[in-house]
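A favour, since you know our structure tokens better than I do. Would you make up a two-line entry for one protein for me to read? Write everything out right here, beneath this request.
=====
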Amino acid sequence: MAEESELDRLDPEPAIVTLTSGFVLEIVRLRTRQFFRLLRVLTHGAGPAMMRAGLDFKDNPGEFASKLVVLVVMSIPDAESEAVAFLQSMCKPAGLVDKPESQLSKPQAAENKALWDKFNEALFNPPLEDTIDLIEAVVRQEAPELQALGKRLEGMLKLFQKTGQDKEPPEPEPSPEEMALSDHSLSSSTSSATSTGGGMSTSSNSPSAGSGSASRRRRLAASEST
């Protein structure tokens, strides 16, 4: 596939895919909602592991597009619903009357509705061959923008790491007021411990201790009288 010029990308011809049933689809351009759906496919499936294994945003555009096609296809088994939703959002029936609904005549509105009904039926559970064709058409159309976005994100991540923003911030030094309050709390707890120890030393004056001394005196008096 020949690479597009900048002028071609500013005013592109719509990509057309003919399904095995003969139904014709037009590929739309990737926008925010479609991009987030693509991320769901990649993050729910095998995408993260395969990106670590070799997707390089600095590859030449053709090689990058080929790797991205494989990446998306290999992610589908773990992200079936997300993949179908992504494909449905990236296509529309070819031949739609392109007017606001309020401006359509009754025949035009009926024709558009019939096309959308066929679209929903065709993409509810498409043949695998159609799925691969659609993924390839979508990815190759959007690969230059995705590659440029990837390079930009890589640059932002490197700057983030270079400036140390990925590290935990150091613990702030305590203020003089906080240090004084901490010293006061430590002093109070030490005084409390000393007072508790003194209280325990008076336990020898308890009634049980006194009764023990009186018992010894009675035994001594009995032994002397004998």
Notes: Residues 128-162 form the longest helix (35 residues). Residues 201-206 have pLDDT under 50 and may be disordered.
